């Protein structure tokens, strides 16, 4: 306990070196397991560990030790994001009626009476968790110096769908039992596609989506290589765009997240998306618009995001938060999310869903 307290003090009494954010949250809408494995809390464990180590050991000063830092941080990030990924599967299964789930490091098992749409939602929950986690790194870092470890966290989450699709997914005929003995992408295809022809089209869509999403890795890869060679941590520009693809309840959706941080330090966000419902051969789309970091009073700021999706059915989303700063490095707030139907963060396949959360934000 004493060592933990010393580490905590070292992290939060040090001068603000880059303005990185860590959020610890709790929601009564989630069970204990889902709370522990939430996007924010998994990231908090990663950042407390990596940044705390830097505070104690000092920042690596040569090529070899920076390589060691990247390697060890990469192993930690890989293990933690896998647990979060599997936790998302488990929670989605529970929200769709599972009577038992079990999480392992590299897979999740669940038992229940599920429809095909339930299986579709459960199979896409893990990769959608990682895509959202990558986006959160951008939100935390835009307009600030982005630490090498935060950059690594972004890259590991952003690349997962890319590498799974391009390097770990065979052609569909190569699976003896693709509904079971396969990865999340193949499961999603098999439960969603109504025919072999449609499944082949979905397989092609996924590979196109992976190539689209891979475009978001080039600049971070350059930043990471630059840090390894020079030790210089780059400042993320006030404008950023990030391509991603979402597995939806009807087909693959190609999205582009756009962020702009103004001179008054609030962030404007847009995320348009477009794709095809392969079963009905119809267009699908989504649009999210938001603003965050705007001042309500001197010490209170808020955020608001609204969205609309047209996939299997029309749906909308509303997300809002309010937080109060007690010091330049610490704030407490509440947030609320509501999804009327399909949304990448809605764990239910056919019902509206919402949650309210309490959170603490640490900036260092």
List the helices and strands and how they pair.
Blueprint: H1 2-13, E1 21-27, H2 32-36, H3 39-57, H4 63-95, E2 100-103, E3 108-111, H5 116-141, H6 148-167, H7 184-192, H8 196-214, H9 218-230, E4 239-247, E5 252-261, E6 267-277, E7 282-295, E8 300-310, E9 314-327, E10 330-339, E11 353-363
Antiparallel strand pairs: 1-11, 2-3, 4-5, 5-6, 6-7, 7-8, 8-9, 9-10, 10-11
Helix pairs in contact: 1-3, 3-4, 4-5, 4-6, 4-9, 5-6, 5-7, 6-8, 6-9, 7-8
Description:
The radius of gyration is 20 Å and the shape is globular. The chain is of the alpha+beta class. It has helices spanning 2-13, 32-36, 39-57, 63-95, 116-141, 148-167, 184-192, 196-214, 218-230, and strands at 21-27, 100-103, 108-111, 239-247, 252-261, 267-277, 282-295, 300-310, 314-327, 330-339, 353-363. The protein has a 9-stranded antiparallel beta sheet with strand order 1-11-10-9-8-7-6-5-4. Strands 2-3 form a two-stranded antiparallel sheet. Helix 4 crosses helix 6 (148-167) and helix 5 packs antiparallel against helix 6. It contains 9 helices and 11 strands.
């Amino acid at each position: 306990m004493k060592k933990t307290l010393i580490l905590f003090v070292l992290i939060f009494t040090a001068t603000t070196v880059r303005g990185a954010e860590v959020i610890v949250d709790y929601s009564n809408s989630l069970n204990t397991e889902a709370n522990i494995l939430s996007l924010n809390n998994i990231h908090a464990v990663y950042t407390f560990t990596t940044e705390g180590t830097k505070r104690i050991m000092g920042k690596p000063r040569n090529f070899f030790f920076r390589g060691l830092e990247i390697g060890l941080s990469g192993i930690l990030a890989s293990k933690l994001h896998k647990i979060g990924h599997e936790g998302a599967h488990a929670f989605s299964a529970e929200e769709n009626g599972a009577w038992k789930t079990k999480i392992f490091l590299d897979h999740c098992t669940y038992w229940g009476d599920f429809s095909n749409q339930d299986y579709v939602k459960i199979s896409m929950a893990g990769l959608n968790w990682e895509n959202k986690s990558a986006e959160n790194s951008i939100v935390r870092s835009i307009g600030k110096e982005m630490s090498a470890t935060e950059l690594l966290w972004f890259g590991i989450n952003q690349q997962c769908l890319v590498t799974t699709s391009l390097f770990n997914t065979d052609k569909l005929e190569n699976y003896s039992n693709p509904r079971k003995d396969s990865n999340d992408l193949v499961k999603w295809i098999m439960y969603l596609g109504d025919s072999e022809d449609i499944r082949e089209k979905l397989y092609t869509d996924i590979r196109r989506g992976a190539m689209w999403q891979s475009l978001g890795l080039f600049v971070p890869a350059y930043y990471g290589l630059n840090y390894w060679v020079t030790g210089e941590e780059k400042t993320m520009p006030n404008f950023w765009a990030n391509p991603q693809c979402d597995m939806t309840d009807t087909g693959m959706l190609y999205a582009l997240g756009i962020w702009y941080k103004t001179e008054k330090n609030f962030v404007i966000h847009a995320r348009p998306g477009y794709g095809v419902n392969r079963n009905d051969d119809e267009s699908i789309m989504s649009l999210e618009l938001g603003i965050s970091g705007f001042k309500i009073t001197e010490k209170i700021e808020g955020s608001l995001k609204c969205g609309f999706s047209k996939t299997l059915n029309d749906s909308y989303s509303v997300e809002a938060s309010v937080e109060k700063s007690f010091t330049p490095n610490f704030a407490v707030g509440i947030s609320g999310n509501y999804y009327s139907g399909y949304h990448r963060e809605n764990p239910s396949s056919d019902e509206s869903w919402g949650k309210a959360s309490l959170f603490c934000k640490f900036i260092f």
